[in-house]
Amino acid sequence: CPHLWLTTSGSSAEATRKLRAAGLEVVPDSFFVAGRQEADRIRICLTAPESRAILSRALDKLVKCHDVLSC
Known about the structure:
The protein is of the alpha+beta class. Helices cover 32% and strands 17% of the residues. The chain contains two helices and three strands; from the N terminus they run E-H-E-E-H. Strands 1-3-2 form a three-stranded antiparallel β-sheet, covered by helices on one side. It is globular and about 40 Å long. The mean pLDDT is 85.
């Protein structure tokens, strides 16, 4: 499935909370980590949006939440 890993400016748990509050469904890196330290990243899956318009709106929301990302 196509996805992006984005580095957060703080903890991935806090970034996940803020992005979910903005209406984005993201997963913190801790979900994928087994026995090693988190890297403060989030995973965004781009699989099967209902339409390009929905994907576009979600990506616009992500851009507006740039303060939680380390870009």
